[in-house]
Automatic annotation (TrEMBL):
GO MF term set: acetate-CoA ligase (ADP-forming) activity; ATP binding
Catalytic activity entry: acetate + ATP + CoA = acetyl-CoA + ADP + phosphate
CoA-binding domain sequence ranges: 4-98
A Pfam family the protein falls into: Ligase_CoA_2
Name of the encoding gene: acdAII
Keyword line: ATP-binding, Ligase, Nucleotide-binding
Main EC class the enzyme belongs to: ligase
InterPro entries xrefs: Acyl-CoA_Synth/Transferase, CoA-bd, Ligase_CoA_dom, NAD(P)-bd_dom_sf, Succ_CoA_lig_flav_dom, Succinyl-CoA_synth-like
Keyword Nucleotide-binding applies: yes
Name this protein carries in UniProt: acetate--CoA ligase (ADP-forming)
Enzyme Commission no: 6.2.1.13
Upper lineage: Archaea, Methanobacteriati, Methanobacteriota, Thermococci, Thermococcales
Amino acid sequence: MDFFFYPSRVAVFGSFKNGAIAYEILRNIVEGGFEGEIIPVNPKGGTVEVAGRTLQIRETLDEAVDTAIIAIPAKFVPSLIDEIGPLIKGAVVISAGFSEVGNADLERELVEKARKHGIRIIGPNCAGIFGVHGKFFGSFEVRVKPGGLALISQSGAFGGAALAMGNDEGIGFSAFVSYGNAADLNESDFLEYFADDENTKAIALYIEGVKDGRRFLEALRYASTKKPVIILKAGKSASGAKAAASHTGSLAGSYEIYRAAFRQAGAIEVEEMEELFDAAKAFEMYTRAGKRVAVITNSGGPGVLATDKLERLGLEMARLSDETVEELRSFLPPQCSVKNPIDLIADADYERYRRTIEVVCGDKNVDSLLVICVPPIFIPSEEIAKAVIEAECDKPVIVNFMAGDLVREGVRLLEEHGIKNFPTPERAARALSWLARRRGF
């Protein structure tokens, strides 16, 4: 499927009036810096001005391209596929008006025409695709920065909201695909593809239901052995399942069956969007972590909250060795607690944090560290961020800087060095629990 996510030539079909879906997709492709050839197609011809460029609109497609993006009325799509089939490898059908509104015959015709020419279809009724490392933004959703997360979404609107939220959370993406009705390619195909995509480090999947459970389980198991797969399942309740069925026409089925399948395949299920991105941030930094955690904090309360959450999630508070305790006592003020959680007290500075991280990291009983910072007004958060960045530690370090404006500059400095911040102790603890679930891979 490289022709979808790393194309060299693309055609866009639809109206190119300002505000029209085809125009917005064309604008996204141009503004996103696509380096290949872009061919707008509309029977009326003419030109279109977009992002400072003037493009000639072809009346028909008369040369081969990798991918066609189609945003025309649904009833005309099958005949268009038949017409351009010999010239394309794949088509992204944005158009709605197929099985999701009861028009199953038209959808079957679309698939028949595609199979006749040996081409693959994404959609219909979808929001498009991104191949971020190919600088290809073939969707009307907000563009994102390059990174390692591939987002697969059954819902276009969810996908768009997730991309925007990912931008706010500092997530980098390798790809995005909204597959809508999944008339041809579906979640299983994309799981298998991104499992082997070298630019993808983790896969996030939003699903409401699947049509072929056995195939899905096989694809999920395959992908999970290669890289983390984070799943957000909608339609868990009886009412939610009915809503999911009416949304995309997929069978939602029993949530218990899905949950068992996720566990069997080794996927990581999350409960809400916030968790999806927290998991993605964790896996962008690390591939896995052990269960024994050391907590380093300058405030007792957040340290206790982190401890409670870690233990509820099935992780262990690491038992520090006598040597580690003695070394900590050698340089920490007597008011500090050298038990785990290690409380550096409110006036902890760069040196105190850095040395503590390095000493604790060297303890063979510690698998990972959770570093909490609630800076007093007289110590800049950047100072503690610098300590985290410069500390020599070869184990996973998850960071919780809190809160708001007080830590804004410190969080910015951390992110510049590839360290993601988790804004509460509980979210930081959850990040470690997801990393610990990957220990067997």
